[in-house]
Amino acid sequence: MPEQPKPAETPARQNVTFPSAGATAHGYLALPPSGRGPGVLVIQEWWGLTDHIADLVDRLAAEGFVALAPDLYGGSVAHDADEAQRMMKALPMARGVELLSGAVGHLLSLPEVTSDTVGAVGFCMGGGFVLYLAAVDPRVGAAVPVYGVIRGEMPDFSGLRARVLGHYGERDRSIPPEKVDELRETLRRQSGVTPDLRLYPAGHAFVNDHRPSHDPDSADRAWRSTVAFLHEQLG
Fold this sequence. Notes:
Layout: E1 12-20, E2 23-31, E3 37-43, H1 51-62, E4 66-70, H2 81-89, H3 93-109, E5 113-123, H4 125-136, E6 140-146, E7 163-169, H5 177-191, E8 196-200, H6 216-234
Parallel strand pairs: 3-4, 3-5, 5-6, 6-7, 7-8
Antiparallel strand pairs: 1-2, 2-4
Pfam family, one: DLH
Keywords: Hydrolase
GO molecular function: hydrolase activity
């Protein structure tokens, strides 16, 4: 995403631990300058909890949210696509959703969080996790998959209660436009929720300003609409 001016007050940042799925989970938390706000979960790409993901947490905090990125890889970060593929495959979808549900509970337990539900924003692998999590956890009130890759079969969306805003690239070979159309129809048919799934003139990972696929204009449009959507849905 394009660089933004730093706010007059910077968010408070901290590495945190919390109980999740019968274990101790780790994550990166940032509070807004006001110290309080709606809770938003930020779910990593297949690379891990990278500087890019931490930067997005900081930016959401600067926009007024209490933002948490749980570390799904337990501190490991992939350095190339083969390693990222292995790490992603080593994390079963059900286990990842279980860990993320624990992170939702942790967010909602914080006195700084003012919302009754949380938002979930995820990228690539994390975008797929957003959809799986929202399908099973009614505490997710706003779901934002960003070029979200669904591994295997689509989840059962009959229990989905969250509003959904999605961002996808027209030139993304891993998620072509027809797959986005299929996802839109499945969500609508199973849940009764009509998602707002938007296409941009970009490829995969267009939000990631650490990758050559970064598209500044598309990233900026997706970011601005995401922030507005989260405020609208979470207060």
